[in-house]
Amino acid sequence: MTKTAELVLREVDAGVAVISFNRPHKHNAINDAMSTEWRAAVGWAIEAPEVRCILLRGEGPSFSSGRDTNELGRRAQGESDHEFVKAAQDFGRRLLDCPKPVVAALRGHVVGGALEAALRADIRIAAADILMRLPEIRFGLVPDTGGTQLVTMLAGPARAKQMIMTGEPIAAGTALAWGLVNEVVAPDRLDGRARELAVALAAGPPLALRLAKQLVDQLWTDGVRRGTRAELAAQAVLFASPDHAEAKRAAAEGRDPTFEGG
Question: Which of the residues are catalytic?
Answer without folding.
Answer: 116, 136
